[in-house]
Each structure stands twice: as C-alpha cells, then as structure tokens.
C-alpha cells in the first residue's frame, strides 16, 4: 500500500509540474514581458538597459545594409529553413538570421569576427573565457524557451558591456577562433542554473582542492644474500581482532559521513524546474585537434567554466556555427549531450548548410567522390566575410575588466568580489569571503588578493574564528619576507615569519616566535647550521618592554640549541650535530654525528666554573669540567689543554650567539615597524610604461611638451620682422630712398644701443642694491653679535652666503654684458647692411 501511495504522490507531482509548465507557456504566449518580469522577480534581477535606444549613427555601413552576397546567403538560409521545417516539423525553428543592433537581418555565421588580441592573457581559451565573463554583464533571455529575435555585433556588446548568452558566445567564439582554436557557437538547452548563471550551489573554484596524484611506491628488489627480517612474534589472532575493530569503526564513520552528505545534498537539492529541458541557452564548443586540444569540451561564457561534452548541465543541441558554416544536429538528444558525436563531417549526424565546409566527409567510393566534387564546383557558395568591424580592446578596457571596475559572484557558502587594478587605494583586486552557514551570515574566513603594492604583499588571509592573519609576499620585499602569520602586531607575541632564504646572507628560511621561545630554520649555510632554538626567561621588570631595544633590556636567555647537517670534510666524531648552551646552569653540551656502522654518537659536556676557587687561586682546567663519551674504545681521550681551548672557543661562540639572538629580536621589531608603516601608507607601484598612471612620466612628458611649445614660440618670435616697428613709423616703404634707408639704419642701431645701456644700468643697480643690503646686514651683525643666539648666527651666515652668491652672479653678468655689447652692436650693423631691403642703399656706406 505504501508503495502504491508513493507512486500516486509522484504522479500527482508530475501532473502539477505539467500544469505549471502549461500555465507558463500560456503566460508567455499572452504577454512575454509579464512572463519575463515574473521570472526575474524570483531571481531579484531587473532589466535597466534598452537596446533600442543605443546610438547607431556612428556605425559603419556594413551594419546597416546587406551586400549582394549577404542577401543571397539570407535566401539560401530561408530555403534551408523551409526544407528543415518540412522534414522535421516537431523541431524548434532554427536560429539563422536575427536582427542586429540596426534592425537589419544578419546571418549568425557572419556575426562571428575572428580577432587575435595583442595581450598574452587572451592567447589561451581560459584567459579569453575569463575576460568575457568578467567584462560583460549578464542579461537573461526575454523568453527562456525561445532564442532571441536580435543579436548585436561583438563590438557593440563590448561597447555597452552587456549581453545575453548568445552575445557572450559570439564574442568568446570570435576571440577563440582568432587565437587559433576550433571553436563554435552552440544553440541548445541547459539547466536552470546554467541559463540563469546561478552559482549558489557551486563550490568556488578558488576553494577546490587540487587532486594529488599518488605515486605507487617502487618495490625494491630482494637481494639474494640479504639478511632476513626478524620474526613477528605478535599474535595473529589479536592482530586480526584489532584490524576487524578498526574496520568496523571506519565503516561506521564512512556510513555516518555518507548519511550526512546525503542529508546535506537533500537539503540543498533545488526545487523542480517546470521548464526543465526547455530552457534555451548558448555556449561555446571547442573541438580537439587545433592548439593541441586533446579532447573536445564546452565553455559556459557566463562563468568561464569548462565542462565535458557529456556533462548533465547541457540537455541538448539544436545547431552550431562558426565563421565558415552552419550545422544542424540530427542526432537524438533524449539522453542530453552524452551520446552526441561531434564529427561535423558526418552528414548523417550533422546537416550542414553550405557545401564549402572544411570538415572532411565520410569515406566514399572514388566515383561518388568525383561526382560530389563536380556538384560542389557547380553549387558551391562561400560564406561572406564578417560584416563586423575588427574587435579592438584597449589596454584600459582590458585592465578594468569588470563593469564599473567591480563584480560580485555568489557561490556555495562563499562570496567572491573582484576589482580592477588601481581601483582600490590598497591595491586589492580580489576578495573571497567564506561563510559557515548557507545563508552567508557567519563569516569563517576572508582571503584578499593584491596587485602592484610597493610592499610586495600579494595575499592576506584572516581566520575569523582564531583571529589569525597570514600575509604572503612576492619576492622583492625589503626584508626578504615571504609570509607572516600573527594574531597581533605587538612584539613578543606568537608569530611565524617565512623568508626567501636565497636573498638573505644568513640563509634564514623561517622564524617562529612567542613570549617564551624563538625557533629559526636555515638552509644553504656554509657552516651547515639548519636549526636554532632559543628559550627565554621572565623579565625582572615588566615595565621595560622594548621601548628602545638594547642588549641590556633584552629578554633573558635560558638556553640556546643549534643543530647542524653533516659536513663530509670532517670525521664524524669531530663534526658537531647538536650543541646546547645552558646559560643559567653554566653548561655546554655537544653531540657529534654518528660514525658509520655505529648506533650511538660521541658526546661532550663542559661545565663552566668561576675563574678562581675559594682560596683565590686561578682555575684553568680540571678533569671534572668536561664529561665526555667517545665512541670506539681504541680512541684516546684528548688532553686537558685541547679541551681548555675548545671550551674557550665555545664560550666565545656563546657570546656571539647571544648577540645574534638579540639581532634576531631587533629584526623582528624592525619588520613589525616597517609592516605597520606599509599598512598605513598602502603605496602602489606604477610601471614606467604606464603613462596614464605614472605621475613622474606624466610630469616629464608635460615638461617636454612645454619646452617644445616654448621652442616653437621662440622660433616664431625669431621669424618676426625686426624692422617692423621702424617701418611703421616711416609710413609707406614700397619705394625707399637712400636717405630713408640710412635713417632706418640709424634708428635701429640707436634703439639697440639704448637697450644695451638700459640692461647694463639695470644689472648695475641690482648689483649695488645687493651690496648695500649686505653691508647693512654686516653692520647689524657687528652691533648685535654678543646677544645673538645660535639660530640667529646660522641664519646670518646663510644670508651672507646667499647674498655673496647673488652679488658674484650679478658681477659676472655685468662683466659679460660689457664684453658682449660691442660685439652684438657690430653684428646688428652687419645684419642691417646685408638685409635685402637695405643692401642696395647701404652698400657704399659699409
């Protein structure tokens, strides 16, 4: 009975869905606008752009008219559509020649405009798809179950940065074909999530974990004379029981995990779509072969995600096209796209419109192939060239990407925000917010990505639960910083710093610090040091916390431990593997590397004592001050003198280590200070080739333009007639007499002479004025010398220096003017005598 009841409930649900589907179809037939508004209200979307209001006056003539070849193509398309409708009356009408932005019918293949862009990022399919997805704003189809009646050109789509799935696909296909891919626009059917760009149930691509390929362990060949392993004396029954228990626990955990996953999937399962299988969508197909594409795949232009051709999101294909031909799918899509074969040269599966296709046909007998070639020669028709202008993307448009410079994408339990470079003052270009709950109320983690920052920070990660912040840096930071993990920027708190060891002299790779200890890891050092661990004690006075970091107020050191890699140039019993300086206890412990064929290592322990004993006698070295364990009985113990020298070296090394630890603490404080300044400033770097944003380059360019303008103005002034003022005074000069020429010469020379004298007088006056002011200042200094402060004396000396410099320059200018004035006067006289207007009158007076 329960089974029958469930079956009846399923039938009722199917009937309800069918009724809803019919109602939606009726609503669409009656008023498509109401139908669109109803669907958009559910998705919180609004249409604000009116394509009929765009300005088409500046568009080329090819956008507004059809050539003779295009008109013939439209006739062929209509004939093809009539034959198709007669043979397949149950199929939907083909999407062949929609209206463009000028209201002119254009064949869809001629709307594709293959263009190769000059940006390396747009040379691969993923870069092209990501650019189209970021740059354009998605508009849903006016009717979700029929193709649009209009299809604007890719250039107009780029200009207004918006479009439906068909506009997205044509633009992306144009870029991909231009980049060398075998790409096609697809008209078909997809799920509601794909059609409406609903990614709220999809995991963010930035959170998807990369699948690690596990390498199978290489089995070592068993040597013929190898030592047999010891027998396993454990009880096999007990081992079986333990394994059985572990298997039961693991099975229970897997079952619980599976039930939890099923429960979550059931809770997140979307509601039934009344238009499932009817929603029209356009996407891009990339076939294998060109550009070393190993396998054909789909690209959704809305999200830039790639899918397999057998993916469940795509439910069927009506037709595909590129810039050369148009194909209609003849295969059955009852199982979606899973069983489709994309051999476009197979006329049984794909009906092509034009015979001039570049896709190979099936193998035919030679006679039939010859007849087919003759038919192609007679009936062949080449696709007209695209009516669309060359697709041009400026550098500014390419960098801005998102409309208005910002785009927000909602994923499952995550929100991704994107910004154009230089839009945010701190250089942020991407932010991923991860939430605990599906409603996206409780923030779990925030990841920020940066570009063009002066401090080289490229990523920041903040865990809201633990309040731990991790900053990542590109190579080039002033301190070689690679990553910085911390809770607070206060000194002597828990933090981890990673460095680019190849950029540092000390080879520091990582430093882990808290209030009680500090651990440092090194690599590539000549002394083979790779580990140093320092333990600190408590300060006596807590108030003295590193206001000024000196060795006197540094944290007291309790112990320093160092570890070294093996140095092959030294014997193992002389190569130190670990040394521990117990500073408070006054002991130094050395552990050497193990010798070959030995399982224990040699050790030494030095005990530091006072320089004098209780009686005041000086202590040099005793046997009690060194406890040693030497591997190998045949090796003799070293003499006390040698041990004494070794102890002195270790004590000196201890002092150096204390200083190095203090330097490490100082470096931490310096890095924290630098990071606070960098975070407060948030300066961005600008390339020297970016003339729009580079202020220095902009100022330099403006200075050069100003100098060129001044040079042109000076040239114009030089080209002016120097005799014009004197000719105007004389009136009509068409017929000049000798007397007038001589008078003109005398007037010009006298005027120039007065100008030279005035200039000399001006320089002399300024020279005398500066000299008098200096003398007055010197008299004032003599009177007030005893009561002057140091600042007044400095100001007086500065004034005297500037005044003497000015007087010296004026003196040089005056002397130079006196020397050059007669020469300039003679040059002007020669110029007047050579002037073609005066030469014939003055040639006897030279």
Automatic annotation (TrEMBL):
Keyword Signal assigned: no
GO biological process: cell differentiation; flagellated sperm motility; spermatogenesis
Similarity annotation: Belongs to the DRC7 family.
Subcellular localization: Cytoplasm, Cytoskeleton, Flagellum axoneme
Domain Dynein regulatory complex subunit 7 C-terminal: 734-841
Every Dynein regulatory complex subunit 7 MORN domain range: 403-687
Domain CEP76/DRC7 peptidase-like: 280-353
UniProt key word Cytoplasm: yes
Parts forming coiled coils: 242-269
Identification of the protein by name: Dynein regulatory complex subunit 7
Any one of the GO CC terms: motile cilium
Protein keywords: Cell projection, Cilium, Coiled coil, Cytoplasm, Cytoskeleton, Differentiation, Flagellum, Spermatogenesis
Provenance organism: Chelydra serpentina (Snapping turtle)
Major localisation: cytoplasm
């Amino acid at each position: 009975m329960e089974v029958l009841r469930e079956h009846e409930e399923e039938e009722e649900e199917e009937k309800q869905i069918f009724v809803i589907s019919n109602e939606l179809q009726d609503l669409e037939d009656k008023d498509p606008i109401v139908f669109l508004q109803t669907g958009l209200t559910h998705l919180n979307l609004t249409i604000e752009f009116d394509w009929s209001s765009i300005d088409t006056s500046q568009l080329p003539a090819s956008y507004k008219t059809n050539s003779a070849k295009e008109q013939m193509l439209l006739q062929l398309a209509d004939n093809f559509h009539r034959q198709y409708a007669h043979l397949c009356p149950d199929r939907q009408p083909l999407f062949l020649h929609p209206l463009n932005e000028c209201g002119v019918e254009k064949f869809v293949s001629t709307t594709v405009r293959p263009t190769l862009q000059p940006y390396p990022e747009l040379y691969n399919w993923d870069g092209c798809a990501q650019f189209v997805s970021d740059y354009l704003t998605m508009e849903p189809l006016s009717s979700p179950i029929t193709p649009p009646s209009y299809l604007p050109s890719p250039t107009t789509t780029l200009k207004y940065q918006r479009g439906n799935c068909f506009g997205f696909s044509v633009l992306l296909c144009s870029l991909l074909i231009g980049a060398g891919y075998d790409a096609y626009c697809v008209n078909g059917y997809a799920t509601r999530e794909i059609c409406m760009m609903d990614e709220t149930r999809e995991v963010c691509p930035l959170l998807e974990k990369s699948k690690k390929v596990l390498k199978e362990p290489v089995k070592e060949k068993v040597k013929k004379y190898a030592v047999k392993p010891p027998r396993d004396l454990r009880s096999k029954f007990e081992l079986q029981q333990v394994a059985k228990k572990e298997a039961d626990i693991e099975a229970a955990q897997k079952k619980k995990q599976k039930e939890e996953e099923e429960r979550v999937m059931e809770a997140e399962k979307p509601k039934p779509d009344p238009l499932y299988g009817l929603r029209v969508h356009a996407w891009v197909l990339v076939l294998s072969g060109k550009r070393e594409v190993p396998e054909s795949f789909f690209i959704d232009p809305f999200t830039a995600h790639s899918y397999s051709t057998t993916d469940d999101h795509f439910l069927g294909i009506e037709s595909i096209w590129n810039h050369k031909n148009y194909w209609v799918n003849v295969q059955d899509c009852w199982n979606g796209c899973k069983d489709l074969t994309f051999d476009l040269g197979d006329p049984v599966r794909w009906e092509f419109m034009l015979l001039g296709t570049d896709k190979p046909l099936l193998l035919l007998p030679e006679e039939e192939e010859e007849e087919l070639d003759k038919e192609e020669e007679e009936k062949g028709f080449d696709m007209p060239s695209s009516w669309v202008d060359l697709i041009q993307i400026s550098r500014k448009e390419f960098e801005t990407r998102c409309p208005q410079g910002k785009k927000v994408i909602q994923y499952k339990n995550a929100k991704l925000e994107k910004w154009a470079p230089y839009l945010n003052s701190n250089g942020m270009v991407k932010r991923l917010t991860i939430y605990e709950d599906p409603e996206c109320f409780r923030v779990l983690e925030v990841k920020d990505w940066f570009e063009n920052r002066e401090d080289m920070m490229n990523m920041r990660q903040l865990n809201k639960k633990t309040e731990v912040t991790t900053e990542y840096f590109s190579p080039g930071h002033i301190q070689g910083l690679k990553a910085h993990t911390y809770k607070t920027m206060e000194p002597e708190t828990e933090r981890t710093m990673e460095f680019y060891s190849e950029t540092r002299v000390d080879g520091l790779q990582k430093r882990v610090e808290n209030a009680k200890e500090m651990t440092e890891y090194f690599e590539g050092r000549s002394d083979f040091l790779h580990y140093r661990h320092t333990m600190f004690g408590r300060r006596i006075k807590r108030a003295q916390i590193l206001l000024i970091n000196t060795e006197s107020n540094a944290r007291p050191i309790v112990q320093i431990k160092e570890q070294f890699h093996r140095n092959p140039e030294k014997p193992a019993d002389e190569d130190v593997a670990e040394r521990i300086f117990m500073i408070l206890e006054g002991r130094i412990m050395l552990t050497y590397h193990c010798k070959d064929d030995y399982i224990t290592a040699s050790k030494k322990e030095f005990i530091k004592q006072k320089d004098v004993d209780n009686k005041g006698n000086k202590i040099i070295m005793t046997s009690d001050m060194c406890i040693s364990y030497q591997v190998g009985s045949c090796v003799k113990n070293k003499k006390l003198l040698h041990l004494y020298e070794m102890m002195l070296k270790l004590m000196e090394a201890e002092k150096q280590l204390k200083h190095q630890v203090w330097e490490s603490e100082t470096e931490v404080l310096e890095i924290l200070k630098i990071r606070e300044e960098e975070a407060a400033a948030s300066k961005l770097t600008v390339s020297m080739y970016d003339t729009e944003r580079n202020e220095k380059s902009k100022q330099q360019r403006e200075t050069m333009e100003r100098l060129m303008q001044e040079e042109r103005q000076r040239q114009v002034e030089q080209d002016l007639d120097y005799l014009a003022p004197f000719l105007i005074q004389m009136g009509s000069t068409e017929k000049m007499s000798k007397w007038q020429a001589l008078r003109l010469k005398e007037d010009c020379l006298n005027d120039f002479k007065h100008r030279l004298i005035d200039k000399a007088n001006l320089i002399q006056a300024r020279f005398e004025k500066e000299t008098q002011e200096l003398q007055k200042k010197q008299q004032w200094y003599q009177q007030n010398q005893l009561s002057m402060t140091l600042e007044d004396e400095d100001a007086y000396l500065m004034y005297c220096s500037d005044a003497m410099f000015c007087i010296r320059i004026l003196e040089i200018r005056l002397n130079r003017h006196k020397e050059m004035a007669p020469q300039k006067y003679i040059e002007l006289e020669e110029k007047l005598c050579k002037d073609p207007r005066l030469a014939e009158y003055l040639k006897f007076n030279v």
